[in-house]
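Fig. S4 source data, part A: sequence.
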Amino acid sequence: MGRHYRSMKPILCLSLLFSACMWADEAGDRVAIEKVISGFNEPHRGPHAKPLSALFTSDADPAELRRLSDMEGRMRQASDGPWSEVTTPRMVSESIRFVTPDVALVDAVIAQYGSLLASREPVLLVMKKQGTEWRIVSLRVCAT
């Protein structure tokens, strides 16, 4: 029995090492996905931000981006007025689930806060890893 245990030890160590590497890849992918989502908030920071279309895959439906922009524009009107107490709308993720190592579902919200107003519009993102970059394949603004 002692000899059998010794032969299993390298296999056990390799499997633990492999699972730790897989977790590290997933953690890095989560950071990369969060970076894409924060890209939705960049246009409000200045003129040098990359266009929102750069966050999408080349075959993504442009109508989805327009729907998101229209909704955000309506929310933004409340924050643009002088003396407004309403924040600029921001997209934030609530959960990231990996369907495969290259495909993720992201539950996000476009949130806006004020002294008398709190608005949260749910958004579902389907994201795909292309090479080392994550991009949005599909986006659905969920009705509330």
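Fig. S4 source data, part B ends here. The chain is about 40% helix and 30% strand.
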